[in-house]
Design goal:
Keywords: Carboxypeptidase, Glycosyltransferase, Hydrolase, Multifunctional enzyme, Protease, Transferase. This is peptidoglycan glycosyltransferase. 36% of the residues lie in helices and 15% in strands. It is α+β, with helices and mostly antiparallel strands. A five-stranded antiparallel beta sheet has the order 7-6-14-13-12, with helices on both faces. A five-stranded mixed beta sheet has the order 17-23-22-19-20, with no helix packed on it. It has a three-stranded mixed beta sheet with strand order 2-1-5, with helices on one face. It is elongated.
Amino acid sequence: MWSTRKLCIGISANLVLATVLAFGLDLADRTFPPPLEKAREVSTEVLDADGQLLRAFATSEGRWRLGTTAKDVDPQFVRMLIAYEDQRFWQHRGVDPIALARAAVQLVSNGRIVSGASTLSMQVARLIEPREGRSLTAKLQQLARALQIERRLSKAEILDLYLALAPYGGNLEGVRAASLAYFGKEPRRLTVAQSALLVALPQLPERRRPDRNLALAEAARGRVLHRMAVEKVVGEGEAERAGLAPIPSRRLQLPAYAAHLAEAAQRKEPSVRRHLTTLHRPIQQGLEAVARDAAGKLGPKVSVAMVMADVRTGEIVGEVGSADYFDASRSGWIDMTRINRSPGSTLKPFIYGLAFEDGLVSQETIIEDRPADFFGYRPRNFDMSYQGDVSIRQALQLSLNVPAVRLLDAVGPARLMMRFRRSEVRPVLPPNETPGLAIGLGGVGITLKDLVQLYAGLANRGRPMQLGDGIQDKPGSIEGEPLLEPVAAWNVGDILSGVMPPLGSGQRGIAYKTGTSYGYRDAWSVGFDGNYVLGVWVGRPDNGAVPGLTGFGSAAPILFEGFAKSGVAITPLQPAPTGATRIAQAQLPISQRRFSINSSGLLASSTREPAPQIVYPPEGARIELGATTGGEIMPLALKLQGGRAPFRWLANGKPLPETSRRRVNQWVPDGGGYSTLTVIDSVGRAASVRVFVD
């Protein structure tokens, strides 16, 4: 009877004690919760399109603490960590009574601490709430915090906190920061030797730092490897081999790519901790290395900027704002991809594109390169010499100034600027000036990013492309009218693909153009293949002159090196669209064999108003027209030269819907076979061609 009463009293007392403890713990948990939110503060990261780290920013405390979960870490490291630090991590509730008992017995038996009893939960408690000294009170508080943490978080969350907060010396916190700083790689795949070192360092992070105490770090790693062999986490032979691996003796810099874009992303959304960009880290690494090396060869104060974009999507895949962000002598903090500068001759291809589109010229049309006066404006070539009669192809490839101005005078500067606006690009004119002939030789301001956007449209068969900002803006095709018609864009690209590469550069199958601004202040080169367009700017950010700086000699080699070092595969240029072909000079219509304009801006001829002549399609042409995505027949471009506007077109005697003042039009055939096309100008003069449509 007495035994039963004692048993009941004991059970009741234990229940009361458990209730009191539970109530006390619950009250303490509500009154003094663990500061978990502060512990979750991590470094801001900027990632590439594949999730690779481009750049990280230190926390407000100046620490490198990268967000980390167990999924980001080699599973072997996690097994070694738990086996070494907390074997019963998955079973206990924050405190390991077996480890506590063992530590107490060893303390009594040896008179000193032989082994600790801290669980990973207790270590997390210490990391989120550091306390000075190792007093009994501090230990009890740590135990209580560990119990609180276990009530609030899952085991996986606790493990993730340890992986993110564990100290590794200096301002390094977490296994990701340590792996990047000591091994130069993410911790997803670690060797046994690397895992052992990362397990050993957090116990005494300052004393065991390998960059300061190599011997102590090696000894600590050896103890971990020995323990792992005893626990059979790794094989004995594997542990021995790992012990022979060298330990890094210096700390590496964490990734710091795309500095300007990374800062822009942080400014745009300062509360976001992970910014995803459209860049590709291998491309970015290659371009930055090329820009840095090139600037070193070009001399002091010279900087280099580069933008590479995907022609198909408009996404920026690589962007270098300066040769070295941290080089004050080159004003490296200035993002030169966004600064308006004179583009030199890089806008000439679009002048030629309009001339092709209007049917004024073909690639083999002869044009004069001789001194000319355009109402007081007297352009000169870069080398102050003249080539005489040249073909349109030669004039563009040699970047001759007088022929470009002749064509711009014919197509109109305002019309050229209007085409740029179709690509959402608005070059900046000098104050109080309207578009004039000087814009063809660099008399406007434009950014490198906008110039690359124009060339992306040229590479994309004349369809204008909107480049993204590299962060969030969604790029893509711009709806509306084309920058250039497909045939005109192909003619320009075909000519530029024949430009000789700079000295020392191999042929890469790209179409490219160079430019040099007045006074040797800016050197440019922009090129494209079937997939990518790359733009290069070279100069001084303070707009100072650099003697000898030219687009061909300074920027073009960087362009070719950039394509090579970016790692992108060489992709052939897009095939010729329907109706695009090279025509020999002898086979051109008489009106297209030579181009010239007189002082009145009219096409030179024996009469002031030459009769209209259809220059495309030529007489007797056999034309194969494709189909649109909707299955409809694609329109055929019609081009004429001469005559007086407006013009009326007829197909097989049937007038097209509207008259037009332009010398280009479109016709959709009713079917295949022979057709007769006729154009009549405002004074009744007519021209006809007979063609066969497949």
